[in-house]
Amino acid sequence: MPERRPWAARIGWLLLFWAGGVAALGLVAYLLRLFMNWAGFSS
């Protein structure tokens, strides 16, 4: 079983980077929405 850990670690890093990207996009979208509301544009 020595080859199982690197595979799991690779999947873990992939999920970590994916989650980080999704969180960053969400944060940008939230800040953009906040700025739009502050500027007077409301949907």
Short description:
With 43 residues, the chain is mostly helical. Helix content is 84%, strand content 0%. It has one helix at 4-39.
Question: Could you please describe the fold and organization of this structure?
Answer:
Helix content is 84%, strand content 0%. The chain has 1 helix and no strands. The protein is rod-shaped, with a radius of gyration of 18 Å. The mean pLDDT is 89.
Using DSSP, what is the number of strands?
0
Structural class category:
mainly alpha
Helix fraction? over 70%
Terminus-to-terminus distance: 55 Å
Bulk shape: rod-shaped
Proportion in β-strands: under 5%
Question: Order of SSEs, N→C?
Answer: H
Largest sheet: none
Contiguous runs where pLDDT drops below 50 for at least 5 residues: none
What integer is the average pLDDT? 89
* Total of DSSP H or I helical runs spanning 4+ residues: 1
Rounded to an integer in angstroms, the radius of gyration calculated over CA atoms is 18 Å
